[in-house]
Design a protein that fits this description.
The complex is a heterodimer of chains A (114) and B (112).
Chain A (H helix, E strand, L loop, with lengths): L2 E4 L3 E5 L4 E3 L1 E4 L4 E8 L5 E7 L5 E3 L5 E5 L4 E6 L8 E9 L6 E3 L3 E6 L1
Chain B lengths: L3 E4 L2 E4 L5 E7 L5 E8 L3 E10 L2 E4 L6 E3 L9 E3 L8 E8 L6 E3 L3 E5 L1
Classes of the chains: A mainly beta (114), B mainly beta (112).
């Protein structure tokens, strides 16, 4: 079965500390991988995506993610967070079977404290 | 840059009422989607369309209907609103099979 799992529902972190958000997927076909961010009362904004090539992907706002095919993971990291990074983060997977519809994880709420 | 535009942004409905959420995109994308977002559940696909005149059900289509008479517009209709339809609704569009999807800003719907 194809699925997307975000392993942490809430991640509290202090300002300037590093953060890692974990995402695992299950698939029998090739995948495209995405991270989206949703700031309070706003829509979703694409942070970064992996389609092919280098497994380390850099996105906006200092975020990066690494695709690990053997562990079927796509964890998101930032070395030093800011208060403005407080948001909900969604991992999404496009299973390359007959279409490219996105399947979303349940989301991880990151709260950055001073 | 308009992108994907949804209206209304906020709406309160009474049980049994009906309404239409409007979605318009100006990027000439052929793929369009409606998602709902519930706390702790991520986004669930309601309906999608691969082009004008073509629509298909997603994961959670019950209680909703869509139409796609033009490339630009993809309205979502709620018939006989129920409290279980209280949610945040997102419209999105995509150009063919190019994997980047663009989202609207969301519509917050409460059914009381």
């Amino acid at each position: 079965a194809q699925s997307v799992t975000q392993l942490d529902s809430q991640v509290p972190v202090f300002e300037e500390a590093p953060v890692e958000l974990r995402c695992n997927y299950s698939s029998s076909v090739s995948v495209y991988l995405f991270w989206y961010v949703q700031y309070p009362n706003q829509g979703l904004q694409l942070l970064l995506k992996y389609l092919s090539g280098s497994t380390l992907v850099k996105g906006i706002n200092g975020f990066e993610a690494e695709f690990n095919k053997s562990q079927t993971s796509f964890h998101l990291r930032k070395p030093s967070v800011h208060i403005s990074d407080t948001a909900e983060y969604f991992c999404a997977v496009s299973f390359l079977s007959y279409d490219y519809k996105l399947s979303f994880g349940a989301g991880t709420t990151v709260t950055v404290r001073a | 840059n308009a992108g994907v535009t949804q209206t209304p942004k906020f709406r309160i409905l009474k049980i049994g009422q009906s309404m239409t959420l409007q979605c318009t995109q100006d990027m000439n994308h052929n793929y369009m989607y409606w998602y709902r977002q519930d706390p702790g559940m991520g986004l669930k696909l309601i309906y999608y369309s691969v082009g004008a005149g073509i629509t298909d059900k997603g994961e959670v289509p019950n209680g909703y209907n869509v139409s796609r008479s033009t490339t630009e517009d993809f309205p979502l209709r709620l018939e006989l609103a129920a409290p279980s339809q209280t949610s945040v609704y997102f419209c999105a569009s995509q150009q063919g099979l190019w994997p980047t999807i663009y989202f609207g800003e969301g519509s917050w719907l409460t059914v009381v």
